[in-house]
Amino acid sequence: MNQLLEFSIFSALAPMVLIWFGLCIWTFRRLERNHPEKYSAIGRPSLFLRNSLENNWLFLKFLWRSEYSVLNDQALSRTCKLMKVFLAVYCVLFLGIFFTFFAGFGKQ
Prior knowledge:
With 108 residues, the chain is mainly alpha-helical. It contains 4 helices and no strands. Helix 1 (2-34) packs antiparallel against helix 4. The relative contact order is 0.16.
């Protein structure tokens, strides 16, 4: 049973990573093009180039503090709200596979 659960969760997580990357790319481009001041303020993040802990932290703060709402960009706001929910679901699933793996590991 645990193997089926682990496989199911992993099968959901794998494509979620690619979707997250797509959402990040769209958000970074939108910020760079339409809100260059805010884009610079959060460290000019990108998916791989200029990717640092500081930029990641600044971007997550931008998301969780809803700093996008003051930019008056409805498409960006909808996407950022989706990203917050998406990240929360991903973290719950990741913790689920983590704990089911270690719970099963102790039984062997």
